[in-house]
Amino acid sequence: MEAKDKSPYVYFILFLGVVGVSFSAILTRFAEAPTSVIAFYRLLFACLLTMPYSLYYQRSYFKNLTTQELFYSMASGIFLAAHFLTWIQSLSMTTIASSTVLVSLQPVFTMILGYFFYREKLPWMSAFGMLVAIGGSVVMGISDLQVDRAHLLGDVLALSGGLFASFYMLIGRKLRANVPAATYCTLVYGACAATLFVFNMVFSIPITGVGSQNLVIFMALALVCTLGGHSIFNWSLKHLEAVKVSTACLGEPLGATILAYFILREVPGSLQLISGAIIIFGLYLFLRGTTIKPGNLKNTNLVVKGS
Q1: Looking at residue 159, what is its pLDDT?
Q2: What value does the mean pLDDT of the chain take?
Q3: How far apart are CA 92 and CA 61, in angstroms?
Q4: Environment class of residue 15 by beta-carbon count within 10 Å: exposed (0-12), middle (13-18) or buried (19+)?
Q5: Where are the chain's structural domains?
Q6: Sign of torsion over alpha carbons 51, 55, 58, 59
Q7: In terms of CB atoms within 10 Å, which of 55, 70, 231, 287 comes out highest?
Q8: Cβ atoms 101, 304 nearer than 8 A
Q9: 291 Cβ neighbours under 8 A, 6+ residues apart
Q10: Would you give the distance in Å from CA 295 to the centre of its chain?
Q11: Could you give the CA distance from residue 305 to residue 165 in angstroms, rounded to a whole number?
């Protein structure tokens, strides 16, 4: 097994990745466009940004793609589209703190689905952490219901976003077994953008005339958050243990909440902060527990993605 590189340089790059994804909710809030249009342009630009590298350096993989791999690419892209549609919509209905924390429950959904699809066992610490995180989400739901029903619906959408992201991850596991990262990103981002294009056409949502300011925001989402965030997480997996990368991903809700406070003057309530801290602590225990029986879980699939 290849030795992991624990140099400060690697941790610094990983930190930049956390900062990158933390801007996702902020930039999305600044965009003045329908949810499906924001998601479409973000994934379209992400696909176009990864395409030159994958076509030039990994074109042999494109030539040898099987029908099954193309099917998995489309299925993964559809679930990724569903993730963005629900999560982005949640940002307009609840606080950034609640939305980013709840969508981070994706590893829990992945583990549960992994048990049903792959019979992967759940270590005791992960089980306890999962219960703590779920308990925290219930507390957060009660807190947001006290504000209004829209906040609670936003919480449900954020949770749905985490669930759809877990399907995206599980299907991606099949695809990534034989397809390199850059090709995988181009295929799935392209399938996601195509799905969102069809969605916009079916519901007569115009994707033109969004304005130059929105286009800049969409490009920033693709460049800073998708490539500068999630791509860094994938890169970090070559140099650090997967559980460390996954744990670092938990910095996104904290970073997004801090940015929302300073940029948007959005102050979460005390009960939101407490429940958010409970969820993050539960997720930390959940991720640490995966190291107890490493043979039971493909740790590389624990990395939080999508937001």
Answers
A1: 93
A2: 85
A3: 40
A4: middle
A5: 19-302
A6: positive
A7: 287
A8: no
A9: 241, 243
A10: 25
A11: 7
